[in-house]
């Protein structure tokens, strides 16, 4: 009557997957929903499945049970009656009813069912005494570890609440503080801001004056026409550079004051303003009027600070960049994030431009890929003793480095020439101190090594010559690739033999150069058949042959002779081989016979190999079944254990009697301990 | 049910029969009670449960950790789950730290006259009589061995004797009034597991021992006067007393019994001259056995006519007390615990028998032996069960330390004052189909 759900559950549980096919599960659910009979039979079938001696089946049945349990009241009512039985089968708490193999799924089953029991108990524990009983028994009597989700959640919530209260307290404290010294702080910030603005103003006036001069000069430049956009760009940049104010002896005092104010503003005031704003936003206070007004004030102040800061940065940034350009270009990454966009925008123009120049000077439109090392002797001065610039693809700072060097010293011609000649190496550790002539401290690694091995000489030095000796550059020899000629003997079915062998094709013999039709090409010679006949049958003709021909002939003869001897040798070798093979075969048969007669084990030995071969040849596409999960895999360990056990058996036999006597004595002496 | 009620009003149905019918119906509908919980304070398996005979209200329990406690089954001490679950906490607990028994308590029983006293027997060789109000020992009796069973007669008016069976071969009768042993009943060849007073005769005590014999003793006379023999069986059963009283009009009960006994073989062991043979019974009788193995339980029905015994052979036997014959009832699929004295329960109209059987309680029909119902709720072996005939409730104790309440099934949820809360509770156990 209600066979549908039975069949569905049968198919659902007959699987080796960890989860049930969602479509099947949906079908089960909708079937169970349709009538109470189905639910009733589902309960029975699931219990039946739980009794199967296979953890996988039980695991899947548990899944279905959970799905139905959480949904159907009728299912719950029928199911809880047998809960004790169910738990015994799923948790396996009875000593005489352990969970069936496979063991890894069994442990999964246990933990899952415990988890589910708790879940059910949270959801429906009030309504079903059996659930409460089961949980209580497992928890309090058998002391199973439950996940305790409800308690954990409650605890977490409490902790969160505590934390909130604490933060609120802190905030209100801060708020009180703020209230007290709001006005004083405000005035302080205001004064700093004003001072900074004044400084900026002074500087700006100077700039204006200075700027007019430069623009006069600019007009002169304008008269000359620059066609190249790149050059034009350079010019514009340089003009811009000129327009910037530079620190000089006149305004040094102003600059230093400005810098100081700026530092105070950014490091102290801005931060405190941010802090107070966040406090004011977060704080939950009844004094809302003060809060709102304070917040407004603070936001105003913040905006002011930002405005001034921007102004200052526009001014001061140039100064910074100029400095860093002169020092070390690698430090560029350390500049504040606020400076960054400006730098990159100003540099990108340069980059593009120099990259163009670089490419054209090299003559090739391509930079070699990977790591490129160029000996940089020509511009030692600028590179501060760095002997290499290691160029990694895509790293703009390096490009800039090179380019700027180029720009200053105009090394284009020499460099490019050198670069053309320069060998390309793979990177090796020896390049780390290539060309350095410094000695290296041997025991200098920041560790106190005295304790164990006695005194260590901290000043020990490895001389540079030694380092150089140790750091010899290693280069591997790479075989030049050789193209192997194809055999090219014309085949019966048409076409040429495509095999490529070094010397001899296994089907067509020695490979010789052939033309496109497969005919052998022998330089300046007649086809071979004529030649062989000519050698043996017509000695008289030889005399008629010219001197040049005679030489050829001699060479041919020599070749032929060598060939003949080789053939004869080969024949002898083959014969020998055949003989040896025969002898070996005989030996083998004799041995096999002896083995077969000697023991029964070896009988299967012979049969074994072909069968294993057969197995290997068959593709293993068998689907894993439930039964296959139960099979225990024989590991190497097992095999070793077995082997050891078998060797031990003999010794065991002798020791057993001894130990038995001992046992008996022990049993008599301590009867209660058995 | 309503027609029955009308018939009773009209006088067509005898009021006793009517109430019996309702009781029986309720007993047949027992399920585990979700709304009544007894909070067990015991740390060991519950060995014995008794409800008091006066009010049918106070439940006495003895556990294998030596603790004894009582519960009020009517008054709920605690509520849980929004007032849905009523919890009954113990009124008091006596364990070994406050003067209780040292070892497992094997049997408990109320003083039959009121609830001011109760008696406990324990494996620490003592039978103790307690004052319920002060929870102090009033009298204690040192037995020669582990006490397996102790019992007081529920109908006694002239004596206050506790019959106690121990691992010793003698049954001892302890007198509460004097604090001494008044009788030692000798006859069993091994320890005594079960002791039961007759429900119809205050002088008769029935004992079952490890020598697989059930002996009847008349305490006014020396020696036992009957040994039950499982070979001798009665061909049919006597109809229950109420039915007989109504159906066979004109024939009094006494006459009926007389008639019946006349037709049967001689019941008591007498010689031709009528002289009683006991105390020195014929050897063949003296060796008669009731079970193959220990007798673990004896339980007399409330009308005092039948005796139910269980043995280590995992069988339940029904005996006619008056004749001493075995009634040929085969109780199906019994699977009893063997090592321990069990405690059975019989409904007052002797229609249903509740037997603790491994992890569940089984309800049998007394006269056909048919298994009516099993209650699988305990997680370990059950030891005892006890019926409350007034509320038609069943209390069961088991080795998993729980005392469970089974009450007649009703689909309604008990009254919760808060309407909203009630709705919420009700809706939390509904179908929930997401797809």
TrEMBL record, chain A:
Keyword Cell wall biogenesis/degradation: no
Subcellular location: Chromosome
Coiled-coil segments on the chain, per record: none
Record carries keyword Cell inner membrane: no
Amino acid composition bias (Polar residues), ranges on this chain: 529-538
UniProt domain UV-stimulated scaffold protein A C-terminal: residue ranges: 421-522
Transmembrane regions: none
GO MF terms, alphabetically ordered: RNA polymerase II complex binding; zinc ion binding
Primary residence: nucleus
GO CC field: chromosome
GO biological process, one term: transcription-coupled nucleotide-excision repair
Disordered, as annotated region: 516-543, 594-620, 644-674
Record's keyword terms, sorted: Chromosome, Coiled coil, DNA damage, DNA repair, Metal-binding, Zinc, Zinc-finger
Listed InterPro entries: ENTH_VHS, UVSSA, UVSSA_C, UVSSA_N_a-solenoid_rpt
Family stated for the protein in its record: Belongs to the UVSSA family.
Protein name: ENTH/VHS domain-containing protein
TrEMBL record, chain B:
Keyword DNA-binding applies: no
Any one GO biological process: transcription-coupled nucleotide-excision repair
Pfam families named in the record: WD40
Annotated keywords: DNA damage, DNA repair, Repeat, WD repeat
WD repeat segments: 98-140, 185-220, 288-329
Domain of life: Eukaryota
CC annotations in GO: Cul4A-RING E3 ubiquitin ligase complex; nucleotide-excision repair complex
UniProt xrefs under InterPro entries: Rad28/ERCC8/Ckn1/ATCSA-1, WD40/YVTN_repeat-like_dom_sf, WD40_PAC1, WD40_repeat_CS, WD40_repeat_dom_sf, WD40_rpt
SUPFAM superfamilies cross-referenced by the UniProt entry: WD40 repeat-like
Protein name (database record): Uncharacterized protein
Gene source species: Zostera marina
